[in-house]
Write a structure and sequence with these properties.
single chain; alpha+beta; FAD/NAD(P)-binding domain; seven-stranded mixed β-sheet
Length: 434
């Protein structure tokens, strides 16, 4: 059954140089780079605050590394704001972690807002991008829905930082879902925080490959046995507040994050898992005997959906070879093959975390950010052109931020010179990044 909407005129807002859809780390960086380059920038976000998974998603910390001046600046400013507000340094005794990469979501939101304001970026929250304005194969703007009604925003360049590539998909850019062989996607997770943890006794297993023996047994094995499927692993991270720990332990498989029905199911499944997880922590994990839930993410953590076909495609082999592309726009990227089990808990058989052996940084070429058949649009974040395995590495927030930084630089050059986005020389982008 179909319903045909009556044709109508909607209010249009013109005059933007760059429109950025999505304000996760990739979108923040794209908007900042374009704004600092003198462009009139509009940043559109469906949530009520900026940051995406880094804030609304209640992510524990920035993981992975990348060579990016903007990333370094963000970490420094967020840390300084936290220190100034609390008049004390972050309480993180683990020498392998620094006060910089752990996230205080409220201080990070404020840091984002202040940086965006300084760059002259116009922010529009509580607004959902639901369509595109096209001229043939060229994106000319986006259509939104909000309490203000249905509107069109027109610009010279659009950057898709939605994670799922919603703008690119609506524009008709080609993509595939998930794993090439069967289109299964990594599971969804709702992050949550517990209080009442004893910092003197607590353990913090950071990866699936971390095993911790206790009087009652090894924790990862106990989780697989005791927690309701598909939950069944223990990932616990210190927060910026002593006694409060971020839990990455809910798990929902067979989720297509591009469908509202699946997102709803993931929300229900993950919320139902939180109580048995806390009961498990109290009974089996040292230091968590008196823990309790204090907050849960307002944004579901979706790891994988659309992979778009770009002018170039980055592969697992490129990452293992630590390849430096001549037309790089991201460099010094480093992480592991973080493939969560597509059929249950823990690490997928293809994934490698702490045992990942390639310790050199790799690069991402500009062509991965440029859709193969659509103009006026750039891709930034986990939606770029890459294979399923490569995506499991580049999908982390610092690397996505560096992609946004490159897209913002490219868009500014294209607007200033009045040239197509795909024709921006990578060398000129490199100069703005360096």
């Amino acid at each position: 059954m179909f319903y045909k909407e009556p044709e109508r005129s909607i209010e249009a807002f013109d005059g933007y140089d760059v429109i950025v859809a999505g304000s996760g780390p990739a979108g923040i960086a794209a908007a900042l780079m374009a704004g600092r380059s003198g462009c009139r920038v509009l940043l559109i976000e469906a949530c009520g605050s900026p940051g995406g998974i880094s804030t609304s998603g209640l992510m524990s910390h920035f993981t992975g590394t990348v060579d990016s001046r903007l990333y370094d600046e963000l970490l420094k400013r967020a840390s300084e704001k936290y220190y100034a507000f609390n008049n004390a340094p972050l309480d993180i005794p683990d020498p392998q972690m620094t006060s910089l990469i752990n996230i205080d979501p409220e201080m990070l939101k404020l840091t984002y807002i202040e940086m965006l304001e300084e760059a002259g970026v116009e922010m529009l929250f509580y607004t959902f991008v639901c369509g595109v304005v096209m001229d043939g194969k060229t994106v000319k703007g986006v259509i939104t829905e909000s309490k203000s009604g249905r509107r069109a925003y027109l610009g010279k360049a659009v950057i898709d930082c939605t994670g799922d590539g919603d703008v690119a998909a609506m524009a008709g850019a080609e993509y595939f879902l998930g794993r090439e062989s069967d289109h299964k996607m990594q599971p969804a997770t709702m992050m949550f925080k517990v209080g009442g943890v004893d910092p003197e006794k607590a353990v913090y297993p950071p990866s699936f490959e971390t095993t911790i023996e206790t009087e009652k047994g090894e924790l990862q094995a106990l989780a697989k046995e005791k927690l309701p499927h598909p939950a069944g692993h223990v990932l616990l991270y210190r927060s910026t507040i002593p006694g409060i720990v971020t839990c990455n332990m809910t798990n929902c498989i067979d989720i297509d994050g591009t469908k509202a029905e699946d997102l709803t199911r993931a929300e229900i499944v993950c919320r139902k898992q939180m109580v048995p997880i806390v009961k498990f922590l109290r009974e089996y994990v040292p230091g968590y005997e008196n823990c309790y839930i204090i907050s849960a993410a307002s944004l579901m953590g979706i790891r994988e959906t659309r992979h778009f076909y770009g002018v170039s495609t980055i592969t697992e082999e490129d990452i293992l070879a630590a390849r430096l592309f001549e037309d790089w726009v991201v460099r010094g990227a480093h992480f592991n093959f973080d493939v969560h089990n597509l059929t249950g808990a823990s690490l997928d058989e293809t994934g490698v975390q702490k045992h990942f052996k390639q310790q050199k940084g790799y690069s991402i070429p500009y062509g991965c950010l440029v859709p193969r058949d659509i103009d006026g649009l750039l891709l930034s974040g986990r939606n770029i052109s890459g294979t399923h395995m490569a995506h499991s590495n580049f999908r982390v927030m610092p690397i996505c931020l560096a992609m946004g930084e490159a897209c913002g630089a490219a868009a500014a050059i294209a607007v200033t010179r009045d040239i197509p986005l795909r024709d921006v020389p990578a060398g000129d982008i490199q100069q703005k990044l360096i």
